[in-house]
Amino acid sequence: MIERHEHLGRLLTDAATRLGPGPPWLVLGVVPLGRPPAGSGLAAGAGLADGDALRRWVRRHVDAWPAPIGIASEPPEPHPDRAVFTPPGRPAGTYYCELHADGSALGALQVGTLRASPTDGGEVWAIGEGALAWITIALLRLLTSYATRADETGSGEGVVEAVVIPATGDGRVVPMEVWNHDGGTYGRAGVRRPAAAGTARRTVGLAACSSPALTATARPLILDLLRRFGLSESRHIDPAGVLRRRHFTGHDELIHTWADAIGVPSEP
Asked: Model-level pTM?
C-alpha cells in the first residue's frame, strides 16, 4: 500500500516537470491498489503497443465532455512503460495525459484566466469553480476506467490525488482565486488566495467511478481542493452527488447532455 502511494507521488512530481507555462494546471493521478501479477500481459505493457486503439478509447471518453478538449486528437507518443498524449512541442500546453503499463494514469488540463481581482485590483489567476468541478469528475472517470485494467488482484480500489499546480513561466508569482457567479456576476468566491494549492488524496472504488456514483465519489476531492481557497461547500454538486446544472452558468445544457451521456444524476 505504501509503495503505491509513493508511486502516485512520483507520478505527479515527474509530470509537473513536463507541464508548460501559462495558466495553472488541474492535475489528477490514479494508481490502482491491485498490482498486476508478475508476467501478466498488462504488467508487460499490453494495450500500449496499439496506439491507435488506445487513442480511440480515450476519445470515446473525451468526446462526451462538455467542452472541446484535444486529448487523444493525435496518436500518443510511445514510451516503453507509458503512452503520452500531449499537443506537439515541449513543454506540454493546454492538456497532458499519460497512461502507464501498470494501470496508473495521469491527466492535466490548464485552468484559469488572468483577471484583476475585484478585492484590490491585483492580478490573479481566476479559476472557475464550475470548471474545477467538471474537470475533476471527467478526469476521474477517464483515469479510473484505465486503472481498472490493472486491478487483476480484485482489490477494486485505487488511490487518487488531485492538485492545482500554479502558473509558471515569466518569474512572477501570481496568486490564484476561485471564482463563480454566486453574486450575480462572475467574481471571487473564496476567502483565500494561495500562490500554491495543496493536494487532495482519496482512496476510491474503481467501479463506482464508472457508475452513477461517480459524482458522489468525486465530491470529496473537489471539496478538498475548494477548501484550499477558503470554500467549505460546492455550488455545483449537492451532498448526494447530484449535479446542479443551473450553477454551471451559461453551460447548463452542455452539462445536462454530458451528465446523461455518462449516466450521473443532475437537476436543473
From this structure: 0.92
